[in-house]
Amino acid sequence: MLTVESRLSVLTVLLVAPAFTGCNLTSGLMHSRSTGTTPDSIHDLQAGEDLAVIVDATPGVVLVDFYADWCGPCRQQAKVLHEIQESSTGDPPRIIKVDIDRHQELAEEYSVKSLPTLVVLDDGKLRHRMTGFTDRDEIQSILEPAGGN
Fold first, then answer.
1. What's the predicted TM-score (pTM) here?
2. CB-side exposure of 116: number of CA atoms within 13 Å?
3. Annotated catalytic residue within 62, 71, 84, 107
4. In the chain, what are the domain boundaries?
5. pLDDT digits (tens, 9 = 90+) for 120-136
6. Class for domain 24-143, per CATH?
7. Helix H segments across the chain?
8. Catalytic option among 42, 45, 68, 74
9. Active site includes 23?
10. In which band, very low, low, confident or very high, does the pLDDT at 92 lie, cut at 50, 70 and 90?
């Protein structure tokens, strides 16, 4: 039987190890081009890119996913977003992933206090905000009235 200290050590390794090993599950999932999703439907915001310019250039719905590589629920959320893209009929919503560790100013601008945070913009205007892990059905129900999916 594990002692309390042993359990805490195991838990610490499980929670902290991905951050130190460079584990980035979202990269492998979100950048696969063999999946049939449109090439730019999921975009990982890079250093120097301007989120506002991308949003302004995208007609209709944009879902912004504020995440961090070390965040377990964020990795689960990435899988759900990938599933939404895969199952989308017609034009899937544009998803922009924003790593809060690389884009702290955007996290502040959008008042991101918890992860993951999803923000739905419709023609550049805030339509809806979801904090914490959000399941596929809830995301899709929010995107549908906004004109996505």
1. 0.71
2. 29
3. 71
4. 24-143
5. 999 899 999 999 999 99
6. alpha beta
7. 4-21, 25-30, 51-56, 72-87, 104-109, 136-143
8. 74
9. no
10. confident
